[in-house]
Amino acid sequence: MQQRITINLNTDSKTAGKSTILEYCRSHGVTGIEAPCGGKGTCGKCKVTVTKPYHKEVLACQTKICDGMEIIVGRKESTIDKEDSMVVLTNGGNISEKFNEHVNRNVVLKEETANEPEKAESNEGTLAACDIGTTTVVCYLIDKETGQIIAVRSGANPQRSFGADVLSRIDAAARADDNDKANGGLKLMQSQIVSLLNGFISEMLTECGRTKVCLFSVAGNTVMCHLLMGISPEKLGRAPFMPDEYFGREFNPLDIGLENCQTMIIFPAVSGFVGGDITAGMMETVNCRKLTLYLDIGTNGEMALGKGDRYVCCATAAGPAFEGAQIEMGMPASRGAVDKVWLEGRRIKYSVIGNDRPVGLCGSGLIDALAILLKAGIIDENGTILSGQELPILFRSYVFELEAEDAAQSLESSLAVHIAPGVYITQEDIRKLQLAKGAIAAGIDILFKEYGCKPCDLDILTFAGGFGNYIDKASAAAIGLFPPELLDRAKEVGNAAGNGAVSAALYQEAWESALDISGKMRYIELASYPHFDEIYVEHMNFCNYS
Length: 546
Description:
Blueprint: E1 3-6, H1 21-27, E2 47-52, E3 56-59, E4 70-73, E5 126-132, E6 136-143, E7 149-156, H2 166-174, H3 185-207, E8 213-220, H4 222-229, E9 249-251, E10 261-266, H5 276-285, E11 292-296, E12 301-307, E13 310-316, E14 337-344, E15 347-352, E16 360-361, H6 363-375, E17 399-401, H7 404-407, E18 415-420, E19 423-426, H8 427-451, E20 460-464, H9 465-470, H10 473-478, E21 490-492, H11 496-506, H12 508-520, E22 521-523, H13 532-540
Helix pairs in contact: 2-3, 5-11, 5-12, 8-13, 11-12
Protein backbone atom coordinates (compact mmCIF):
# COMPACT_ATOMS: atom_id res chain seq x y z
CA MET A 1 0.00 0.00 0.00
CA GLN A 2 1.24 3.47 -0.90
CA GLN A 3 1.71 6.18 1.72
CA ARG A 4 2.28 9.85 0.86
CA ILE A 5 4.20 11.67 3.60
CA THR A 6 5.01 15.34 4.07
CA ILE A 7 7.90 16.27 6.38
CA ASN A 8 7.55 19.43 8.48
CA LEU A 9 10.70 20.18 10.43
CA ASN A 10 9.23 23.23 12.16
CA THR A 11 6.24 21.59 13.89
CA ASP A 12 7.27 17.96 14.22
CA SER A 13 9.51 17.39 17.26
CA LYS A 14 10.20 13.79 16.26
CA THR A 15 12.22 14.90 13.27
CA ALA A 16 14.99 16.25 15.49
CA GLY A 17 18.18 14.36 14.70
CA LYS A 18 16.50 12.24 12.04
CA SER A 19 18.74 13.06 9.10
CA THR A 20 17.61 10.45 6.56
CA ILE A 21 14.23 9.40 5.19
CA LEU A 22 14.69 5.91 6.64
CA GLU A 23 15.39 7.26 10.14
CA TYR A 24 12.40 9.57 9.90
CA CYS A 25 10.09 6.75 8.85
CA ARG A 26 11.37 4.49 11.63
CA SER A 27 10.66 7.10 14.30
CA HIS A 28 7.16 7.77 12.94
CA GLY A 29 6.07 4.14 12.66
CA VAL A 30 5.96 4.22 8.86
CA THR A 31 6.18 0.66 7.54
CA GLY A 32 6.76 -0.55 4.02
CA ILE A 33 10.46 0.30 3.68
CA GLU A 34 12.66 -2.77 3.36
CA ALA A 35 16.25 -2.27 4.54
CA PRO A 36 17.92 -5.72 4.67
CA CYS A 37 21.37 -4.18 5.11
CA GLY A 38 20.20 -2.13 8.09
CA GLY A 39 20.58 1.22 6.38
CA LYS A 40 24.19 0.89 5.21
CA GLY A 41 23.33 1.67 1.60
CA THR A 42 24.55 -1.66 0.25
CA CYS A 43 21.36 -3.58 -0.58
CA GLY A 44 19.56 -0.90 -2.62
CA LYS A 45 16.11 -2.06 -1.48
CA CYS A 46 14.92 0.94 0.54
CA LYS A 47 13.93 2.96 -2.51
CA VAL A 48 11.21 5.59 -2.12
CA THR A 49 9.93 8.26 -4.48
CA VAL A 50 10.54 11.90 -3.59
CA THR A 51 7.92 14.15 -5.25
CA LYS A 52 8.99 17.44 -3.66
CA PRO A 53 11.29 19.46 -3.81
CA TYR A 54 12.46 17.24 -6.70
CA HIS A 55 10.98 14.17 -8.35
CA LYS A 56 13.08 11.03 -8.42
CA GLU A 57 13.56 7.63 -6.81
CA VAL A 58 16.14 7.59 -4.01
CA LEU A 59 17.55 5.29 -1.33
CA ALA A 60 15.78 6.18 1.91
CA CYS A 61 18.85 5.35 4.01
CA GLN A 62 21.12 7.66 2.05
CA THR A 63 18.85 10.66 1.44
CA LYS A 64 18.62 13.50 3.95
CA ILE A 65 15.25 15.00 4.78
CA CYS A 66 14.39 18.66 4.37
CA ASP A 67 11.48 20.83 5.39
CA GLY A 68 8.47 20.35 3.13
CA MET A 69 9.83 17.19 1.52
CA GLU A 70 7.11 14.94 0.14
CA ILE A 71 7.78 11.23 -0.28
CA ILE A 72 5.83 8.19 -1.44
CA VAL A 73 6.51 4.95 0.41
CA GLY A 74 5.32 1.57 -0.86
CA ARG A 75 3.69 0.55 -4.10
CA LYS A 76 0.37 1.25 -5.73
CA GLU A 77 -2.60 -0.92 -4.78
CA SER A 78 -2.70 -2.32 -8.30
CA THR A 79 0.78 -3.77 -8.11
CA ILE A 80 1.31 -7.30 -6.93
CA ASP A 81 4.04 -6.77 -4.35
CA LYS A 82 1.94 -6.06 -1.26
CA GLU A 83 3.15 -6.53 2.28
CA ASP A 84 -0.07 -8.29 3.28
CA SER A 85 0.39 -10.83 0.49
CA MET A 86 3.42 -12.41 2.16
CA VAL A 87 3.18 -16.18 2.55
CA VAL A 88 3.43 -16.72 6.31
CA LEU A 89 3.35 -20.21 7.77
CA THR A 90 0.78 -20.01 10.58
CA ASN A 91 0.47 -23.70 11.32
CA GLY A 92 2.12 -27.01 10.49
CA GLY A 93 0.84 -30.27 9.15
CA ASN A 94 2.56 -32.40 11.76
CA ILE A 95 1.25 -31.15 15.09
CA SER A 96 2.46 -33.07 18.11
CA GLU A 97 -0.11 -34.83 20.24
CA LYS A 98 2.25 -35.44 23.15
CA PHE A 99 0.37 -33.15 25.49
CA ASN A 100 -3.13 -32.96 24.04
CA GLU A 101 -4.36 -36.26 22.64
CA HIS A 102 -7.96 -35.44 23.59
CA VAL A 103 -7.95 -31.95 22.11
CA ASN A 104 -8.80 -30.84 18.57
CA ARG A 105 -6.07 -28.34 17.63
CA ASN A 106 -7.31 -27.42 14.17
CA VAL A 107 -7.79 -23.76 13.37
CA VAL A 108 -11.48 -22.92 13.65
CA LEU A 109 -12.49 -21.05 10.51
CA LYS A 110 -14.85 -18.14 11.03
CA GLU A 111 -17.27 -19.50 8.42
CA GLU A 112 -17.84 -22.64 10.46
CA THR A 113 -19.22 -20.68 13.41
CA ALA A 114 -20.85 -17.83 11.55
CA ASN A 115 -24.37 -19.04 12.37
CA GLU A 116 -23.59 -19.62 16.03
CA PRO A 117 -23.34 -16.64 18.38
CA GLU A 118 -19.94 -16.48 20.02
CA LYS A 119 -20.26 -17.61 23.62
CA ALA A 120 -19.01 -15.05 26.12
CA GLU A 121 -16.15 -16.52 28.06
CA SER A 122 -14.37 -15.49 31.23
CA ASN A 123 -10.82 -14.22 30.96
CA GLU A 124 -9.63 -17.51 32.45
CA GLY A 125 -10.85 -19.33 29.34
CA THR A 126 -8.77 -17.40 26.79
CA LEU A 127 -5.10 -18.03 26.01
CA ALA A 128 -2.71 -16.64 23.42
CA ALA A 129 0.56 -17.79 21.87
CA CYS A 130 3.07 -16.15 19.58
CA ASP A 131 6.10 -16.97 17.46
CA ILE A 132 8.22 -13.83 17.01
CA GLY A 133 10.49 -14.46 14.06
CA THR A 134 13.15 -12.17 12.66
CA THR A 135 11.14 -11.92 9.44
CA THR A 136 7.55 -12.77 10.39
CA VAL A 137 5.33 -12.79 13.47
CA VAL A 138 2.42 -15.18 14.07
CA CYS A 139 -0.13 -14.92 16.90
CA TYR A 140 -2.85 -17.36 17.98
CA LEU A 141 -5.89 -16.98 20.23
CA ILE A 142 -6.86 -20.23 21.96
CA ASP A 143 -9.95 -21.46 23.79
CA LYS A 144 -8.61 -23.12 26.94
CA GLU A 145 -11.59 -25.44 27.41
CA THR A 146 -11.56 -26.97 23.92
CA GLY A 147 -7.91 -26.36 23.01
CA GLN A 148 -9.01 -24.90 19.69
CA ILE A 149 -7.16 -22.09 17.96
CA ILE A 150 -10.04 -19.67 17.43
CA ALA A 151 -8.19 -16.83 15.67
CA VAL A 152 -4.86 -16.24 13.95
CA ARG A 153 -2.96 -13.12 12.95
CA SER A 154 0.33 -12.95 11.09
CA GLY A 155 2.52 -10.47 9.29
CA ALA A 156 5.98 -9.10 8.67
CA ASN A 157 8.13 -8.13 11.64
CA PRO A 158 8.12 -4.30 11.60
CA GLN A 159 11.72 -4.24 12.83
CA ARG A 160 12.91 -5.23 9.35
CA SER A 161 13.68 -1.57 8.54
CA PHE A 162 16.60 -1.96 10.99
CA GLY A 163 18.01 -4.89 8.98
CA ALA A 164 17.03 -8.34 7.77
CA ASP A 165 19.18 -10.30 10.21
CA VAL A 166 19.73 -10.35 13.97
CA LEU A 167 23.26 -8.92 13.72
CA SER A 168 21.93 -5.78 12.02
CA ARG A 169 19.37 -5.34 14.78
CA ILE A 170 21.93 -5.91 17.51
CA ASP A 171 24.00 -3.18 15.91
CA ALA A 172 20.97 -0.87 15.63
CA ALA A 173 20.00 -1.46 19.26
CA ALA A 174 23.51 -0.56 20.40
CA ARG A 175 23.47 2.77 18.55
CA ALA A 176 21.52 5.18 20.77
CA ASP A 177 20.50 8.42 19.11
CA ASP A 178 22.29 11.20 20.99
CA ASN A 179 19.66 13.74 19.94
CA ASP A 180 16.65 11.60 20.80
CA LYS A 181 17.57 8.88 23.28
CA ALA A 182 13.91 7.98 23.89
CA ASN A 183 13.67 6.96 20.25
CA GLY A 184 16.99 5.14 19.93
CA GLY A 185 17.14 1.82 18.08
CA LEU A 186 16.32 -0.38 21.09
CA LYS A 187 13.31 1.67 22.20
CA LEU A 188 11.98 1.98 18.67
CA MET A 189 12.26 -1.74 17.95
CA GLN A 190 10.59 -2.60 21.26
CA SER A 191 7.80 -0.15 20.52
CA GLN A 192 7.33 -1.62 17.05
CA ILE A 193 6.93 -5.23 18.19
CA VAL A 194 4.77 -4.38 21.23
CA SER A 195 2.50 -2.26 19.02
CA LEU A 196 2.15 -5.12 16.53
CA LEU A 197 1.31 -7.65 19.26
CA ASN A 198 -1.19 -5.28 20.88
CA GLY A 199 -2.90 -4.87 17.54
CA PHE A 200 -2.99 -8.61 16.84
CA ILE A 201 -4.33 -9.51 20.29
CA SER A 202 -6.92 -6.73 20.32
CA GLU A 203 -8.22 -7.73 16.87
CA MET A 204 -8.48 -11.41 17.81
CA LEU A 205 -10.24 -10.70 21.12
CA THR A 206 -12.77 -8.45 19.37
CA GLU A 207 -13.31 -11.02 16.62
CA CYS A 208 -14.09 -13.73 19.17
CA GLY A 209 -16.10 -11.58 21.58
CA ARG A 210 -13.60 -11.82 24.41
CA THR A 211 -11.90 -9.23 26.57
CA LYS A 212 -8.62 -10.48 27.99
CA VAL A 213 -5.94 -13.17 27.72
CA CYS A 214 -5.06 -14.93 30.96
CA LEU A 215 -1.77 -16.42 29.67
CA PHE A 216 0.36 -15.33 26.73
CA SER A 217 3.07 -17.79 25.59
CA VAL A 218 5.95 -16.37 23.53
CA ALA A 219 8.59 -18.20 21.48
CA GLY A 220 11.34 -16.33 19.67
CA ASN A 221 15.05 -16.26 19.12
CA THR A 222 17.18 -14.70 21.85
CA VAL A 223 17.62 -11.37 20.11
CA MET A 224 13.90 -10.97 19.32
CA CYS A 225 13.02 -11.71 22.96
CA HIS A 226 15.57 -9.17 24.21
CA LEU A 227 14.08 -6.54 21.92
CA LEU A 228 10.54 -7.42 23.07
CA MET A 229 11.50 -6.91 26.70
CA GLY A 230 13.55 -3.77 26.01
CA ILE A 231 16.78 -5.50 27.07
CA SER A 232 19.84 -4.50 25.08
CA PRO A 233 21.19 -7.41 22.98
CA GLU A 234 24.50 -5.58 22.59
CA LYS A 235 26.49 -8.35 24.32
CA LEU A 236 25.34 -10.78 21.63
CA GLY A 237 27.32 -8.81 19.08
CA ARG A 238 30.69 -9.59 20.60
CA ALA A 239 32.49 -12.56 22.13
CA PRO A 240 31.67 -14.51 24.22
CA PHE A 241 28.10 -13.76 22.96
CA MET A 242 26.46 -14.21 26.36
CA PRO A 243 22.91 -12.85 26.68
CA ASP A 244 21.75 -10.76 29.62
CA GLU A 245 18.58 -12.85 29.90
CA TYR A 246 17.84 -16.52 29.19
CA PHE A 247 14.08 -16.19 29.86
CA GLY A 248 12.24 -19.45 30.69
CA ARG A 249 10.00 -17.72 33.26
CA GLU A 250 6.96 -15.50 33.80
CA PHE A 251 6.91 -11.78 33.03
CA ASN A 252 4.38 -9.02 33.65
CA PRO A 253 3.09 -7.87 30.23
CA LEU A 254 2.22 -4.41 31.59
CA ASP A 255 5.92 -3.76 32.19
CA ILE A 256 6.42 -3.47 28.41
CA GLY A 257 3.03 -1.96 27.59
CA LEU A 258 1.43 -5.18 26.39
CA GLU A 259 -2.31 -4.78 26.92
CA ASN A 260 -5.16 -7.21 27.56
CA CYS A 261 -2.83 -9.89 28.99
CA GLN A 262 -2.54 -11.01 32.62
CA THR A 263 0.63 -13.16 32.48
CA MET A 264 3.32 -13.77 29.87
CA ILE A 265 5.80 -16.64 29.65
CA ILE A 266 8.80 -16.61 27.32
CA PHE A 267 10.46 -19.86 26.25
CA PRO A 268 13.99 -20.52 27.58
CA ALA A 269 17.00 -19.76 25.42
CA VAL A 270 20.03 -22.04 25.38
CA SER A 271 22.51 -19.41 24.20
CA GLY A 272 22.72 -16.06 22.52
CA PHE A 273 21.91 -17.59 19.15
CA VAL A 274 19.89 -20.70 20.01
CA GLY A 275 16.72 -19.25 21.42
CA GLY A 276 13.33 -20.15 22.79
CA ASP A 277 11.93 -20.75 19.32
CA ILE A 278 14.22 -23.77 19.00
CA THR A 279 13.32 -24.99 22.50
CA ALA A 280 9.62 -24.65 21.67
CA GLY A 281 9.96 -26.40 18.32
CA MET A 282 11.97 -29.29 19.72
CA MET A 283 9.59 -29.75 22.65
CA GLU A 284 6.74 -30.02 20.16
CA THR A 285 8.29 -32.29 17.53
CA VAL A 286 11.34 -34.27 18.68
CA ASN A 287 10.81 -37.92 19.58
CA CYS A 288 13.05 -38.75 22.54
CA ARG A 289 13.55 -42.33 21.24
CA LYS A 290 14.73 -41.38 17.76
CA LEU A 291 17.94 -39.62 16.83
CA THR A 292 16.72 -36.35 15.30
CA LEU A 293 18.39 -33.46 13.53
CA TYR A 294 16.25 -30.35 13.96
CA LEU A 295 16.86 -27.53 11.47
CA ASP A 296 15.37 -24.05 11.56
CA ILE A 297 16.88 -22.25 8.59
CA GLY A 298 16.13 -18.56 8.36
CA THR A 299 18.10 -15.40 8.81
CA ASN A 300 19.94 -17.25 11.57
CA GLY A 301 20.46 -20.97 10.97
CA GLU A 302 19.76 -22.80 14.23
CA MET A 303 20.03 -26.56 14.62
CA ALA A 304 20.10 -29.31 17.23
CA LEU A 305 20.90 -33.03 17.19
CA GLY A 306 20.14 -35.74 19.71
CA LYS A 307 17.56 -37.81 21.54
CA GLY A 308 16.56 -38.66 25.09
CA ASP A 309 18.76 -36.95 27.65
CA ARG A 310 21.46 -35.58 25.34
CA TYR A 311 21.41 -32.91 22.66
CA VAL A 312 24.01 -30.72 20.98
CA CYS A 313 23.09 -27.48 19.24
CA CYS A 314 24.65 -24.59 17.37
CA ALA A 315 23.79 -21.53 15.32
CA THR A 316 25.32 -20.45 12.05
CA ALA A 317 25.54 -16.95 10.64
CA ALA A 318 23.79 -17.96 7.44
CA GLY A 319 22.58 -14.40 6.84
CA PRO A 320 19.34 -13.44 5.12
CA ALA A 321 20.18 -14.71 1.62
CA PHE A 322 17.90 -17.76 1.87
CA GLU A 323 14.96 -15.44 2.51
CA GLY A 324 15.74 -13.30 -0.51
CA ALA A 325 17.38 -10.39 1.32
CA GLN A 326 20.59 -8.91 -0.10
CA ILE A 327 19.98 -10.85 -3.32
CA GLU A 328 19.72 -8.71 -6.48
CA MET A 329 16.19 -9.87 -7.31
CA GLY A 330 15.41 -11.55 -4.01
CA MET A 331 12.11 -10.89 -2.27
CA PRO A 332 9.82 -12.37 0.41
CA ALA A 333 7.46 -15.21 -0.46
CA SER A 334 4.72 -12.90 -1.75
CA ARG A 335 2.72 -12.51 -4.94
CA GLY A 336 5.01 -12.32 -7.95
CA ALA A 337 7.84 -14.31 -6.38
CA VAL A 338 9.27 -17.23 -8.34
CA ASP A 339 8.93 -20.04 -5.79
CA LYS A 340 9.81 -23.14 -7.84
CA VAL A 341 12.30 -23.72 -10.66
CA TRP A 342 12.89 -26.91 -12.64
CA LEU A 343 14.32 -28.25 -15.90
CA GLU A 344 12.00 -29.44 -18.64
CA GLY A 345 14.03 -30.71 -21.56
CA ARG A 346 16.30 -27.89 -22.63
CA ARG A 347 14.29 -25.17 -20.91
CA ILE A 348 14.27 -23.69 -17.41
CA LYS A 349 10.68 -23.64 -16.13
CA TYR A 350 9.26 -21.83 -13.12
CA SER A 351 6.12 -21.13 -11.09
CA VAL A 352 5.07 -17.85 -9.51
CA ILE A 353 3.15 -17.24 -6.28
CA GLY A 354 -0.31 -16.01 -7.21
CA ASN A 355 0.23 -16.97 -10.89
CA ASP A 356 1.23 -13.37 -11.56
CA ARG A 357 3.99 -11.75 -13.57
CA PRO A 358 7.36 -12.76 -12.04
CA VAL A 359 9.11 -9.90 -10.24
CA GLY A 360 11.72 -11.69 -8.12
CA LEU A 361 12.90 -14.86 -6.40
CA CYS A 362 11.98 -16.00 -2.90
CA GLY A 363 13.99 -18.48 -0.82
CA SER A 364 12.54 -21.71 -2.22
CA GLY A 365 12.99 -20.43 -5.78
CA LEU A 366 16.61 -19.50 -5.06
CA ILE A 367 17.42 -23.00 -3.78
CA ASP A 368 15.76 -24.57 -6.82
CA ALA A 369 17.54 -22.19 -9.18
CA LEU A 370 20.91 -23.00 -7.67
CA ALA A 371 20.27 -26.75 -8.01
CA ILE A 372 19.12 -26.36 -11.62
CA LEU A 373 22.10 -24.21 -12.61
CA LEU A 374 24.38 -26.89 -11.20
CA LYS A 375 22.49 -29.73 -12.90
CA ALA A 376 22.43 -27.96 -16.26
CA GLY A 377 26.16 -27.24 -16.12
CA ILE A 378 25.61 -23.48 -16.14
CA ILE A 379 27.74 -23.18 -12.99
CA ASP A 380 30.64 -25.41 -11.99
CA GLU A 381 31.29 -27.05 -8.62
CA ASN A 382 32.95 -23.84 -7.43
CA GLY A 383 29.76 -21.88 -8.14
CA THR A 384 31.22 -19.95 -11.08
CA ILE A 385 28.91 -19.08 -13.97
CA LEU A 386 30.48 -20.56 -17.09
CA SER A 387 30.78 -18.76 -20.41
CA GLY A 388 31.85 -19.33 -23.98
CA GLN A 389 32.77 -22.86 -24.98
CA GLU A 390 32.62 -24.08 -21.36
CA LEU A 391 28.87 -23.46 -21.26
CA PRO A 392 26.55 -26.24 -22.56
CA ILE A 393 25.20 -25.11 -25.93
CA LEU A 394 21.60 -25.84 -24.88
CA PHE A 395 21.70 -23.20 -22.15
CA ARG A 396 23.92 -20.50 -23.65
CA SER A 397 20.94 -18.23 -24.30
CA TYR A 398 20.22 -18.05 -20.56
CA VAL A 399 23.58 -16.48 -19.65
CA PHE A 400 24.10 -12.79 -20.26
CA GLU A 401 26.31 -9.91 -19.16
CA LEU A 402 24.87 -7.28 -16.85
CA GLU A 403 24.85 -3.67 -17.94
CA ALA A 404 27.80 -1.67 -16.64
CA GLU A 405 25.59 0.25 -14.18
CA ASP A 406 24.18 -2.96 -12.67
CA ALA A 407 27.61 -4.58 -12.38
CA ALA A 408 29.47 -1.52 -11.08
CA GLN A 409 28.95 -2.36 -7.40
CA SER A 410 30.20 -5.91 -7.69
CA LEU A 411 33.75 -7.20 -7.59
CA GLU A 412 32.50 -10.47 -9.07
CA SER A 413 31.96 -11.41 -12.70
CA SER A 414 29.24 -9.39 -14.43
CA LEU A 415 27.57 -12.55 -15.74
CA ALA A 416 24.01 -13.42 -14.75
CA VAL A 417 21.47 -16.15 -15.63
CA HIS A 418 17.86 -15.62 -16.73
CA ILE A 419 15.42 -17.63 -14.58
CA ALA A 420 12.16 -16.05 -15.74
CA PRO A 421 11.23 -13.04 -17.89
CA GLY A 422 12.87 -10.05 -16.22
CA VAL A 423 14.15 -12.19 -13.34
CA TYR A 424 17.75 -13.30 -13.09
CA ILE A 425 20.41 -14.48 -10.64
CA THR A 426 23.87 -12.90 -10.62
CA GLN A 427 27.31 -14.29 -9.87
CA GLU A 428 27.38 -12.26 -6.67
CA ASP A 429 24.01 -13.75 -5.65
CA ILE A 430 25.41 -17.24 -6.12
CA ARG A 431 28.39 -16.40 -3.88
CA LYS A 432 26.06 -15.17 -1.14
CA LEU A 433 23.97 -18.33 -1.38
CA GLN A 434 27.15 -20.42 -1.24
CA LEU A 435 28.19 -18.65 1.95
CA ALA A 436 24.76 -19.32 3.48
CA LYS A 437 24.57 -22.97 2.49
CA GLY A 438 28.20 -23.53 3.50
CA ALA A 439 27.47 -22.20 6.98
CA ILE A 440 24.48 -24.50 7.44
CA ALA A 441 26.29 -27.57 6.07
CA ALA A 442 29.34 -26.90 8.25
CA GLY A 443 27.13 -26.62 11.34
CA ILE A 444 25.48 -29.95 10.55
CA ASP A 445 28.87 -31.58 10.01
CA ILE A 446 30.13 -30.34 13.39
CA LEU A 447 27.00 -31.49 15.24
CA PHE A 448 27.51 -35.05 13.97
CA LYS A 449 31.17 -34.93 15.01
CA GLU A 450 30.36 -33.61 18.48
CA TYR A 451 27.54 -36.08 19.09
CA GLY A 452 29.78 -38.94 18.04
CA CYS A 453 27.66 -40.28 15.19
CA LYS A 454 27.38 -40.25 11.41
CA PRO A 455 24.57 -39.14 9.09
CA CYS A 456 23.68 -42.80 8.47
CA ASP A 457 22.81 -43.14 12.17
CA LEU A 458 20.10 -40.48 11.96
CA ASP A 459 16.42 -41.46 12.21
CA ILE A 460 14.71 -38.16 11.37
CA LEU A 461 15.71 -34.88 9.74
CA THR A 462 13.14 -32.19 10.54
CA PHE A 463 12.78 -28.85 8.76
CA ALA A 464 10.98 -26.23 10.82
CA GLY A 465 9.64 -22.82 9.86
CA GLY A 466 8.37 -21.32 6.64
CA PHE A 467 11.60 -21.73 4.68
CA GLY A 468 11.96 -25.39 5.68
CA ASN A 469 8.32 -26.03 4.86
CA TYR A 470 8.45 -24.71 1.30
CA ILE A 471 11.91 -25.59 -0.02
CA ASP A 472 12.29 -28.61 -2.24
CA LYS A 473 14.33 -31.06 -0.15
CA ALA A 474 15.86 -32.69 -3.23
CA SER A 475 17.16 -29.30 -4.40
CA ALA A 476 18.56 -28.59 -0.94
CA ALA A 477 20.36 -31.95 -0.92
CA ALA A 478 21.64 -31.39 -4.48
CA ILE A 479 23.47 -28.19 -3.50
CA GLY A 480 24.88 -29.82 -0.34
CA LEU A 481 22.77 -28.01 2.26
CA PHE A 482 22.53 -31.33 4.11
CA PRO A 483 23.95 -34.83 3.49
CA PRO A 484 22.16 -36.28 0.42
CA GLU A 485 21.75 -39.69 2.10
CA LEU A 486 19.32 -38.05 4.56
CA LEU A 487 16.84 -37.04 1.86
CA ASP A 488 14.52 -40.00 2.51
CA ARG A 489 14.48 -39.13 6.23
CA ALA A 490 13.66 -35.45 5.74
CA LYS A 491 10.26 -34.04 6.66
CA GLU A 492 8.81 -30.62 7.37
CA VAL A 493 7.16 -29.90 10.72
CA GLY A 494 5.59 -26.55 9.87
CA ASN A 495 5.62 -23.73 12.37
CA ALA A 496 6.94 -25.92 15.17
CA ALA A 497 7.82 -22.94 17.37
CA GLY A 498 4.30 -21.54 17.08
CA ASN A 499 2.77 -24.95 17.75
CA GLY A 500 5.06 -25.35 20.76
CA ALA A 501 3.95 -21.97 22.09
CA VAL A 502 0.32 -23.08 21.78
CA SER A 503 1.05 -26.31 23.68
CA ALA A 504 2.81 -24.42 26.48
CA ALA A 505 -0.14 -22.05 26.84
CA LEU A 506 -2.50 -25.02 27.16
CA TYR A 507 -0.41 -27.42 29.22
CA GLN A 508 1.93 -26.94 32.16
CA GLU A 509 3.49 -30.29 31.23
CA ALA A 510 4.53 -28.88 27.84
CA TRP A 511 6.12 -25.82 29.47
CA GLU A 512 8.03 -28.03 31.91
CA SER A 513 9.18 -30.23 29.02
CA ALA A 514 10.60 -27.16 27.26
CA LEU A 515 12.50 -26.17 30.39
CA ASP A 516 13.81 -29.73 30.65
CA ILE A 517 14.98 -29.85 27.02
CA SER A 518 16.79 -26.53 27.30
CA GLY A 519 18.74 -27.90 30.25
CA LYS A 520 19.84 -30.97 28.27
CA MET A 521 21.26 -29.07 25.30
CA ARG A 522 24.99 -28.41 24.99
CA TYR A 523 25.73 -25.36 22.90
CA ILE A 524 28.70 -25.34 20.52
CA GLU A 525 30.12 -21.93 19.66
CA LEU A 526 31.16 -22.26 16.03
CA ALA A 527 33.14 -19.02 16.00
CA SER A 528 35.70 -20.59 18.34
CA TYR A 529 35.37 -24.18 17.13
CA PRO A 530 38.74 -25.69 16.06
CA HIS A 531 39.25 -25.56 12.30
CA PHE A 532 35.75 -24.18 11.69
CA ASP A 533 37.00 -21.96 8.87
CA GLU A 534 38.39 -24.96 7.00
CA ILE A 535 35.18 -26.95 7.47
CA TYR A 536 33.15 -23.94 6.31
CA VAL A 537 35.21 -23.50 3.13
CA GLU A 538 34.93 -27.22 2.34
CA HIS A 539 31.14 -26.98 2.37
CA MET A 540 30.90 -23.86 0.23
CA ASN A 541 31.56 -25.76 -2.98
CA PHE A 542 28.96 -27.96 -4.62
CA CYS A 543 30.22 -31.44 -3.89
CA ASN A 544 28.94 -34.39 -1.89
CA TYR A 545 29.64 -34.95 1.78
CA SER A 546 32.55 -37.27 2.51
